[in-house]
Fold this protein.
Amino acid sequence: MKSFWEIRILLAESNEQRIRNIEQAFSKSRLKHFLRWVRTKEDIDFELRFNPPDLLLCGRYLNQTNASEMMRMLDNYQLSIPCIVVCKQREPVMDTQLAIAGVYEIFEDTELPLVIREIGFIQEQLLEIKNVV
């Protein structure tokens, strides 16, 4: 059973180094979280359909898909959850397309502490929503 203070994060990523860096950043943080890692489009589809997270954390590209397609998957399942993209470097054209598709924020690999801080902010917003309901 999920503790009420945890944020459930689905990490859709295939870059091993980025995964280790993200896990290390979370382990150093005080953020109460549950991180589920998937690496295929089928696994993303399964998780979104049967175990929707509070937040999607992903790279721009995955083995069989990309962040734009993941945003379409969120729309298909009528999930209005934030999606944060972590990438090697900014690409203005791609970043603009992702922003139009509804990506919450885009961070570079070097900005992982900012990612954790932003997720903490999102977690506070989710708690406020859950306490109102």
